[in-house]
Design brief:
Chain B: This is assimilatory sulfite reductase (ferredoxin). The complex is a heterodimer of chains A (128) and B (837). Chain A has 128 residues and is mainly β. A four-stranded antiparallel sheet of chain A has the order 2-3-4-8, with no helix packed on it. Chain B folds into six domains: 168 residues, FAD/NAD(P)-binding domain; 126 residues, FAD/NAD(P)-binding domain (3-Layer(bba) Sandwich); 95 residues, Enolase-like, domain 1 (2-Layer Sandwich); 57 residues, BFD-like [2Fe-2S]-binding domain (Arc Repressor Mutant, subunit A), CATH 1.10.10.1100; 60 residues, no CATH class; 155 residues, Sulfite Reductase Hemoprotein, domain 1. Chain B is built from 25 helices and 38 strands. A five-stranded parallel sheet of chain B has the order 3-2-1-7-19, covered by helices on one side. Chain B has a five-stranded parallel sheet with strand order 9-16-10-11-12. In chain B, helix 20 crosses helix 23. In chain B, 47% of the residues are buried. The chains are: A mainly beta (128), B alpha/beta (837). Chains A and B meet through strand 1, strand 2, strand 5 and strand 6 of A and helix 15 and helix 16 of B.
C-alpha cells in the first residue's frame, strides 16, 4: 500500500501545461492542479533544471510542498517541507532524514514557453 | 500506608517531602506537612530578590499538591511520643508512624533596649519583608545589625527601598563566618561603592526612639546613627522548643541532636535543617539542610544514606560582588597551615588559599571580587596542588594554572549535582559534543550554572571541535556571516554563497541569511531573490498552520486597541470565516486563511490602519503592558505609553530568534516582563531593565541589567542590547542562551551595553536608528506591488481555486481544521472547500 497511488496509467503519458515558464522563478516552487484533482509542486533550479513532486507533505497530509525552501544536499537538489521541515530529494522524492514516506515524482518539461507536467512516476522509490 | 508527619514547611521540609515522594514509588508513606506560614514553601535564600522585582510566586518552591497533604497556617503545639501523635493550634490531633522536625530557626534579636520598637524587624519571612517595606515608606535611613551573609542581603534590600543604609557588625570585619579580615575589608570598600556604610567592630547598645515612638536611630556607644528602619540579622537560633518539651536530646548549642541518619534520640523522630544539631553543629545554610533532608528521606524508605557533616563552601553574589569561601577558609583545622594571598585593592580583587604547612595540599580559601576560579579550587580542596599555589590565584594565570585539566577524575565539577570530572569525561567519550549535550547526559551545569565555563574547557581539552558551521553550505556561524555581510556590503544570498559558501543553500542557511540581510536593512523581505530565501511564514507574511492555511495577526502595539479597530477585526474574521483567538501576547489571532485569501484579508486590515504584527517572523513580536499609572492605583509609571513607544520603535526588527518585550507599571509586574527577552519594570525613580527572559521549553526569568533609568537612557540601552544581540547571536539562539554564551555572561553584557567597553555603542545605536528610519509595513508593501501579490495564489494554473484538501469542522461555533488524512490513505478527490461535520 502506498500513499499516493493513483489510477492514472503511467504508460499513456499525457502532458498538462501548468504555467508559463516565466512564472516559475528559479529556486521558488509553484503549486499546480492536475487533472483529477492531484496537486504537484514544480521547481526550477538555478541551473534551469525542472522538478515536479507531489504537493502533499506525506508527514502531515497538508498540500504545502510548493511553499518549501529549495536547496541542495551534497549536490542533490532538495525541498524542505515548511511544516515539520522534512527534507526530500527533488530527483527521487525520497526523504533524506532517515526512514519515512517520500513524495511521488512527476515528469516535467518546458515546451514553447510553457511548463508541462506528466502523469506521476509513482510513489518515491517504494519507500513505504 | 504508614503515616509521615513533617513539622515545618520551609526549605528543608519541602526538600524532604519532595525527595521522599519522588522516590517513594510504592507509596509506602502518606505524607502530611504542617507549616505555620500562610503560603506553600518558598525559597528563603532568594528572599532579597523580592525587593528586586520578584513576586511571591517567583519565590515559591515546587508544588507538592497531590503528593502530600499540606496544612498551612497551622502550628504544632505538642508532640506525644508515647501515643505518637501531634496536636496543633487548631485543636487537631494527628497520629504518625514517623515524624520529621523541620522547624528551622528564629532570628536572634540581641537583647538591646528598644529592639521591640515599631520600625525594628527580623529578616526571615515574606511577612518580614512586607513589614520592612511598609516601615520604609517615608523613611530615609536604615540600619542592619549584623554584617554576615544575610545581613548584607538585608542591607541590599534597604538600599533597593531607597534608604541611606548602614551595616553594624560586632566582629572586626564583614561576613566573619565565611571570610577573613583582608577579604572583609575589601568587601566593605565594595559595598561602600554601592552606598552602604559598614561599621565593623561596633556594638549596638540601644535602638533609640523618635518623637512618634518609632525607631529613629542606633546608639553605638561613642556615636549614634540615624535609622528609621532597623533590621536584625545577628544570627539564628534553632527552633527546638517542641523537641525540648518532648524530651528529645538537644545539641550543646541547641537544636535536636541527630545521628548520621538524621534521627533524633527517638527512633521514630527525625530532624533536618536548622533545627537539628549534628555533632554539635547547627548548619545555617541551604546545602547542608538539603543533604540532611535527602538523608532522612532515604532512611524513611529503608536506605542507608548517612549525613556526615557538610561542606559549607559558598559562592554568592552580594550586591553584584562575587564572594566565595571554600574548604577550611580560616586555616583552623590543621597545624601550621599557610596562607597565600593576592590582595589587589586597586582592581578590587582578593584571593586567599589556605595550604598545608609544606604548601603541597589545598585546604581552603576565600575569593572576593572575582570568584571565577571557585569551581576548580573547590574541587581541589584536600588534594595535592597542581603547582605553585600563587599561580592558581594570580590573575595572569587564571584559566591556565586553575584549569580543570589539573583536576583528578573524582574531583567534582558540578557540586550542585555531584558530577565529577570523570563523569564529564565519560559523557564526552560517549559522544557529547557540546554543553547542552553534557547537561543532558550528566545534569552538570543545570542548577547554578557556575561550572559551565569548566564544561566548555573540558570539551576543548578533550579535543571536541565546537563546530560553528551553520550547515553544509557555510563553514561560518551566523555571527561570522553577519560580520562578512557588514564588511563586504553583499546584498544577495547568491553573491554570499558564491563567495563564502558552497552549493545552493538549504532551509537552514537561506532563512538565516535572509534574516541577516533584513536586519541590515535591505528593503522588503519579498523583494527579488530574497523572497525565495524566506521560510514559508516569512514568504507569505503569515504563520502556516497544520493544514496549510495561515494565521493572521495584526499588530496591536502594547495591547491597546480602540473599539473601532476591534470591530474591524471581528468583521474581517466573520467575513472570511476565520477562527478567532486572543493570544498570550495581548493581540488577536485569526486562523484558517488560505494563501489566496491573505491579500484580501490584509487589504481590509491595512485600510483600517493595521500593520503586520510579524507573528510569522524571527523578529520583534510584541511589547506587552499592564495599564500602568494611567489607571492602576499601584502604578508608578505610564507603562502603556512606554510599551507602545518601544513596540513601534522596534517593529519589523529581524533578529536571530523571535523577540518579545513587556513593560510593567510597578513592581507587581502584571505584564510578566521578566518572562520576556527584554522586560521593563517601573520604579518610583524610573525604569528597571531586565534582559534574557523567555517562556517556552526552558522558561527563564530575565535578569536585571540596569536600574532606575530615565526613559531616554532606557531606550538607548535597549537599542544597544538588541543590536548587539542581532550582530553576535547564533541562528535561533534566544537572548537567554546568547547572554549565557557571552564570555562573562550578564556582567560582560552590562560592560558592553552600559559601560560601552567595546566602544561600539554609538555604532549600535546608529544601526538601530537606520532600522527605525527604514521601517515600512510589509503587508502594505505587498498590497502595493503586483509582482509580490502574484505569489499569493493557490495554484499557478488555477489561482482562485481553493486547495481541495483543506476542510474544516465546527467546534464551539468556530471553524477548525478537519482531522488530518491518515497516512496511507488516498487523498480526497472531492473539490469541496469546506466539509461541515
Amino acid at each position: 500500500m502506498s500513499v499516493l497511488t493513483t489510477e492514472t496509467p503511467a504508460a499513456a503519458r499525457d502532458w498538462t501545461a501548468v504555467c508559463p515558464g516565466a512564472l516559475l522563478a528559479a529556486e521558488r516552487g509553484a503549486a499546480v492542479l492536475l487533472p483529477g484533482g492531484e496537486q504537484a509542486a514544480v521547481f526550477r533550479s538555478a541551473a534551469g533544471e525542472l522538478f515536479a513532486v507531489s504537493n502533499i507533505d506525506p508527514f502531515t497530509g497538508a498540500a504545502v510542498m510548493a511553499r518549501g525552501i529549495m536547496g541542495d544536499r551534497a549536490g542533490e537538489p532538495t525541498v524542505a517541507s515548511p511544516l515539520l521541515k522534512h527534507v526530500f530529494s527533488l530527483r527521487t522524492g525520497l526523504p533524506l532524514d532517515g526512514e519515512g514516506p517520500g513524495l511521488a515524482t512527476y515528469p516535467v518539461r518546458e515546451r514553447d514557453g510553457r511548463v508541462e507536467v506528466g502523469a506521476a512516476d509513482g510513489p518515491a522509490g517504494g519507500a513505504l | 500506608m504508614a503515616r509521615l508527619i513533617v513539622i515545618g514547611n520551609g526549605m528543608a521540609g519541602h526538600r524532604l517531602v519532595d525527595t521522599l515522594t519522588r522516590a517513594d514509588t510504592d507509596r509506602a508513606w502518606q505524607v502530611t506537612v504542617i507549616g505555620e506560614e500562610p503560603r506553600p514553601a518558598y525559597d528563603r535564600v532568594a528572599l532579597s530578590s523580592y525587593f528586586d522585582g520578584a513576586s511571591e510566586d517567583d519565590l515559591l518552591l515546587g508544588d507538592l499538591s497531590g503528593r502530600a497533604d499540606q496544612r498551612l497556617a497551622e502550628r504544632v503545639t505538642a508532640i506525644d511520643r508515647e501515643r505518637r501523635t501531634v496536636t496543633t493550634d487548631t485543636g487537631t490531633t494527628l497520629a504518625y508512624d514517623a515524624l520529621v522536625l523541620a522547624t528551622g530557626s528564629t532570628p536572634f534579636i540581641p537583647p538591646v533596649p528598644g529592639a521591640d520598637l515599631p520600625g525594628c524587624h527580623p529578616y526571615r519571612t515574606i511577612e518580614d519583608l512586607e513589614a520592612i517595606t511598609a516601615s520604609a515608606e517615608g523613611a530615609t535611613t536604615g540600619a542592619v545589625i549584623g554584617g554576615g551573609l544575610l545581613g548584607l542581603e538585608a542591607a541590599n534590600a534597604l538600599r533597593l527601598l531607597g534608604l541611606d543604609t548602614h551595616v553594624v557588625e560586632l566582629a572586626p570585619h564583614l561576613m566573619p563566618a565565611q571570610v577573613d579580615q583582608g577579604a572583609g575589608a575589601l568587601l566593605a570598600r565594595m559595598v561602600a561603592d554601592l552606598g552602604v556604610t559598614a561599621h565593623t567592630g561596633t556594638a549596638t547598645s540601644a535602638v533609640t526612639a523618635g518623637p512618634h515612638g518609632r525607631a529613629s536611630g542606633l546608639d553605638l556607644g561613642e556615636t549614634t546613627l540615624p535609622a528609621d528602619v532597623v533590621v536584625f540579622s545577628a544570627g539564628i537560633r534553632p527552633r527546638d522548643d517542641l523537641a525540648r518539651r518532648a524530651g528529645l536530646d538537644l545539641g550543646p548549642r541547641g537544636g535536636a541532636a541527630v545521628d548520621d541518619a538524621c534521627r533524633t534520640s527517638d527512633p521514630h523522630i527525625y530532624a533536618v535543617g536548622e533545627c537539628a544539631s549534628h555533632n554539635g553543629t547547627v548548619y545555617g545554610l541551604v546545602a547542608p539542610a538539603n543533604a540532611m533532608a535527602d538523608t532522612a528521606a532515604d532512611r524513611l524508605l529503608g536506605g542507608t544514606a548517612a549525613f556526615t557533616g557538610a561542606d559549607t563552601s559558598t559562592k554568592l553574589k552580594l550586591m553584584g560582588v562575587d564572594v566565595a569561601s571554600f574548604g577550611d577558609a580560616h586555616g583552623r583545622g590543621e597545624q601550621g597551615a599557610l596562607d597565600v594571598v593576592v590582595n589587589d585593592a586597586a582592581s578590587r580583587r582578593y584571593a586567599k588559599l589556605v595550604v598545608s604547612d609544606d604548601a603541597t595540599r589545598l585546604l581552603g580559601g576565600v575569593l572576593v571580587g572575582d570568584a571565577s576560579a571557585y569551581g576548580t579550587l573547590r574541587a581541589l580542596v584536600g588534594r595535592e596542588l597542581p603547582g605553585d599555589p600563587l599561580e592558581l590565584i594570580s590573575p595572569a594565570s587564571s584559566g591556565a594554572g586553575a584549569g580543570p585539566a589539573a583536576l583528578p577524575d573524582d574531583a567534582q565539577i558540578c557540586s550542585c549535582n555531584a558530577v565529577t570530572k570523570g563523569d564529564i569525561a565519560a559523557a564526552i567519550h560517549d559522544g557529547a559534543c557540546d554543553v547542552p549535550d553534557l547537561k543532558k547526559a550528566t545534569c552538570a551545569g543545570t542548577s547554578c550554572g557556575s561550572c559551565v565555563p569548566m564544561l566548555k574547557t573540558l570539551l576543548a581539552d578533550a579535543g571536541v571541535e565546537q563546530s560553528k558551521a551553520l550547515c553544509e553550505h557555510f563553514a561560518h556561524s551566523r555571527a561570522d556571516l553577519m560580520e562578512i555581510v557588514r564588511a563586504t556590503g553583499i546584498t544577495t544570498f547568491s553573491d554570499l554563497i558564491a563567495r563564502h559558501g558552497t552549493g545552493r543553500g538549504c532551509d537552514v542557511c537561506k532563512p538565516a541569511v535572509a534574516s541577516i540581510l533584513a536586519s541590515l536593512g535591505n528593503g522588503h523581505i519579498l523583494a527579488g531573490e530574497q523572497a525565495g530565501l524566506q521560510d514559508t511564514n516569512d514568504h507569505f507574511l503569515a504563520n502556516m498552520q497544520r493544514n496549510g492555511t495561515y494565521s493572521v495577526v495584526p499588530r496591536i502595539p502594547g495591547g491597546e486597541i480602540t473599539p473601532e479597530r476591534l470591530i474591524v477585526i471581528g468583521e474581517v474574521a466573520r467575513e472570511f470565516g476565520l477562527y478567532t483567538k486572543i493570544t498570550g501576547a495581548q493581540r488577536i489571532d485569526l486562523l484558517g486563511a488560505r494563501v489566496e485569501q491573505l491579500p484580501a484579508v490584509w487589504a481590509r486590515l491595512v485600510d483600517a490602519g493595521f500593520e503586520s504584527g510579524h507573528a510569522y517572523g524571527k523578529a520583534l513580536r510584541t511589547v506587552k503592558s499592564c495599564v500602568g499609572s494611567t489607571w492602576c492605583r499601584y502604578g508608578v509609571q505610564d507603562s502603556v505609553t512606554m510599551a507602545i513607544d518601544l513596540e513601534l520603535r522596534y517593529r519589523g526588527l529581524r533578529s536571530p530568534h523571535k523577540l518579545k518585550g513587556a513593560v510593567s507599571g510597578c513592581a507587581r509586574e502584571c505584564a510578566e516582563a521578566r518572562g520576556k527577552d527584554f522586560g521593563v519594570i517601573a520604579t518610583d525613580k524610573g525604569w528597571n531593565l531586565y534582559v534574557g527572559g523567555n517562556g517556552g521549553f526552558t522558561p527563564r526569568h530575565a535578569e536585571l541589567l540596569a536600574s532606575d533609568l530615565d526613559s531616554a537612557t532606557l531606550v538607548r540601552y535597549l537599542d544597544r542590547f538588541l543590536m548587539y544581540y542581532i550582530r553576535t547571536a547564533d541562528r535561533l539562539q534566544r537572548t537567554a542562551a546568547w547572554i549565557e554564551s557571552l564570555d562573562g555572561g550578564l556582567e560582560r553584557l552590562r560592560e558592553v551595553v552600559v559601560d560601552d567597553a567595546l566602544g561600539i555603542a554609538a555604532d549600535l545605536e546608529a544601526d538601530m536608528a537606520a532600522h527605525i528610519d527604514g521601517y515600512a509595513d510589509e503587508w502594505r508593501g505587498v498590497l502595493e506591488d503586483p509582482d509580490k501579490l502574484a505569489r499569493f495564489v493557490s495554484f499557478a494554473n488555477a489561482p482562485d481555486t481553493p486547495d481541495p484538501t483543506i476542510s474544516f469542522d465546527t467546534v464551539r461555533d468556530q471553524p477548525v481544521p478537519s482531522a488530518p488524512v491518515p497516512l496511507g490513505m488516498p487523498e480526497p478527490a472531492t473539490a469541496a472547500t469546506a466539509v461541515e461535520a
